[in-house]
Here is the input.
Amino acid sequence: MNSRHLSLSSNVPSTVLLFTISHKPGSLHSVLESLKEEEINMKKIESRPGRSSNSYDFFLEVELDSTSPKLSPLIKKIEQHASNLKVVGGVQIPNFPRRPRDLDAIADKTLQYGEALDADHPGFTDEVYRKRREEITNIAKTYRYGHPIPRVEYTDVEKGTWRTVYLRLKELYQTTACSQFNYIFPLLEQNCGYSPDNIPQLEDVSAFLHDCTGFSLRPVTGLLSSRDFLNGLAFRIFHSTQYIRHHTVPEYTPEPDICHELLGHVPLFADPDFAQFSQEIGLASLGASDDDIKRLATLYWFTVEFGVCLQEGQIKAYGAGILSSVGELENVKSGKPEMRPLNILEAANTEYPITKYQPFYWMAYSFQDATAKLREFVASHMSRGFQVIYNPYTQSVEVLESREQLCQFAKAVSAQVNTLAEALAHL
Here is the structure.
């Protein structure tokens, strides 16, 4: 009798039964007959050699809620043919993206903006601007994963807005941005066409990021729901707008635009440690409850959007909401806002203002430290009852729900540890 694994996918509540049967003809058949008699469907079954040479341990997942009245009679029948029976309450795994192409399904699920502007938007009464926005957002509506991102021929007016924002922000970066940002920004100028007189193309920037950290960009029409946006980060995909703010107020935008995305977000996605932190938030969002999504989105706001860090005794900005805003950069530089050491649990449950400069910032000591605290938060304070991992070879997400998967994951980690040990031995 060899170790086997049979899985029949389902999206209904399940319960896991662990038991041992002797290695003799008909033993497993008798157990499965119990399911038939109680009219209960099997979802998954696995086996492995038991502690004694004449037995096998089984993992049996059935489509049955752990509180169902059917469970008790099923247990009694199985106990007639098996020993060491234990019941583990099942976990219902919700639907969520498993591969990058699954993100195509959210392409048209923008919450607001795009070509439809609110009445308080600077371009609300500008018909030329509104038509231009519609032209650009149509790119995102028709884009599909794996295809090159269509290029936008920006107008002289749009380039003028970009130039104003670019020059003003760059003046402040050397004194206020974190060291990683200031290291990467010149590389973007050298490799991606970053300059005062040119708005870079998402396709070029995406290729650069992918070579650096595996991150890539995907065009989007406007604001997505927190769940959809964070889900993208799990695959190291950042949803980016391509349109630009209204030219009458170049230092203000009520929603993300190409200036915010390329000047605020993009540089640090080329940093391995920041990329890892961002992906960890995305992975935590997959299948998370609505309450946990809200907390993760809040944490994203206080870190990826408005985070600061301590470098050589000085406060430096790494959040995109700061790095793409002259006012926020000056606010950080003023020394007036309160600087709070990053506490993930507190930050995730703290209200934040969206219509004024931040009165306080959460300060990280390093991206590695922030990632370690995030992992502890996810493990200890989130209600999701399953674990996921990202497979970089297939660029897919896997739910760790079987012994085989755990063994494969352990082998992969072991191989990496061995490689690390060999490298250290040669130093």
Q: What stands out?
A: Residues 403-425 form the longest helix (23 residues). DSSP finds 15 helices and 13 strands in the chain. The chain has a mean pLDDT of 90.
